[in-house]
Amino acid sequence: MERIKMREKLQEKLPTKRYEHSLGVEYTAGTMAFIYGVDLEKSLIAGLLHDCAKYVPNDKKIAKCKKRGIPITDYELKNPELLHAKLSAVYAKEKYGVEDEEILSAIRSHTTGKPAMSTLDKIIYIADYIEPNRNILPDMEQIRKEAYKDLDVCLIHILRNCVNYLQKKGSTMDPVTMETYNYYKNHTCLEEKNI
Ligand code: FE
Ligand code: FE
Q1: How many angstroms separate the alpha carbon of residue 40 from the centre of ligand 2?
Q2: pTM above 0.90, yes or no
Q3: Which terminus, N or C, of the chain has the lesser number of Cβ atoms within 10 Å?
């Protein structure tokens, strides 16, 4: 399916604000693709479709994942909203004809991240956080700059802020978020990067 057709279809499935967010992620991911040498079209499609199953009701999210044999963690069962990432990857394939595994992977991991992400995975995770329609979150100005300087520095900054925020609030968090944070903290030499 052409990207322009994907947009028409997506617009019917999402409320206006979420659709605008999707376009924001699409274009932000596109600009990051220019810098980091990943395929532009893949980046745009992953950005556009990353939330395409967001408005499937939560009980249906669980049922639809189960039906397809997608593994659901305990944390996701308790917080089915998180499943929109996995289900959006399924919908991208089934309803928008996306076969490319790199695109599907980036959609699948956009909420929690995961250890050892591909460049495209990182771009979509970050673009989702920094796109222009987003509410201004703490350190946003700096995080937006980092996004165009060093993906790992930016990723760690976002993850650190998320982990701190959730811990301060006393909220639980998906263990995968913590796993991802620890992975990148341990695998990135921030001193060397000098940012
Ligand atoms: Fe999302
Ligand atoms: Fe999103």
Answers
A1: 19
A2: yes
A3: N
